[in-house]
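Appendix B. Raw example, untouched.
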Amino acid sequence: MQIGRYEILEIIGTGAHGRVARAHDPMIGRLVAIKLFPKELASGEARQRFIQEARVVGQLSHPSIITLHDMGIDEATQTPYLVMEYLEGQPLDRILEKGSVPYPRACAWAAEVACALGVAHRKGVIHGDVKPANMLITDDGRLKLMDFGMARLASRDSKATPLVGTPAYWCPEQIMGKPQDARSDLFSLGVVLYEMVTGKRPFDADSLQAICSRVLSSTPLPPSHANPSVPSNFDGIVARCLAKDPAARYAPAEALAEELYPLARRKETPVPVTQSNGNGHGLRDRAARLLRSA
C-alpha cells in the first residue's frame, strides 16, 4: 500500500482518531510512523482545519515531543496523513497494565511531559488528550508525547466539541462544556501521574456517568495512602494538578516540572526526603540526567 511517497509496511496501532502505520520513506531511506486519518478530513472546512493544525504541530520542537516530518492528503485514496519519527518502544498504558512504575521514574517522566506541554502551550497549542496511550516509552527509557493531531489553538473556543479524548482523563471544564486551556492538559497529566505511582486511576468507575461525577465532585485518596512508598509531600503536587478550579492548578506547565525534578532524584525508599532544587542547571539538562538514572 502506498500513501503519498511512503510505502506502508504494517499497521501498528488503531485508535479513535485513526490508524498508525510503520512505513518506509524511499526518498530519504528511513523508517517513519504515519498516522492515517478518516477520509472525512480530506474535504471542505475539515481539510483546512487538518492542514492548519498539522502546520501548528510541525512548529513544536522538544526532545519529549514526537517529531513531525511531513503531512499530506493522498489524492488516490483521499486519506489525510501525518508523517512522524519512528521509534521502538511501547506506550505507557501497556506498561501500566503491569502495575505502577517506580516513584522517581514516574516523577521524571511526568516532568518531561510537563516541559513538552509548556513548549506547546507557548505556541498556543493545547494537547487535548493527555493520557498514557499517547506517551511512548522508548527502548532506552525516554518519553515521547504523541498525538498532537487533536491539538487545538488555545484561543479557539472548544464548546463545539467538549467531549473528545478518554473519559478517565477528562478535566471538569471539559465535562461541563467550558473552554479548555493549558491548565486542562495539566489536570489530565495529574491523572496520569496519580496512575503511574499508584497503579490506579483517581476517578475510575464502571460507567461514563459515574466517571464524570467523580471528576466533578470527588477527591481521590492521596497517593501516599494508596502507595506507602510515596512520600506525603507528593500528595500536594497531585492535588494541585487535580484541582477542580483551573486557576488553582500549576501555571505555566514548567512550574510542575520544577516541583517534580527534585523528587525524581530521590532514592527508591519509603522514607520521605526533602531536597533542594537550586543546582542552577536548565530543565532540559536535568531531564536528560534523570531519565538516564530513573
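End of appendix B.
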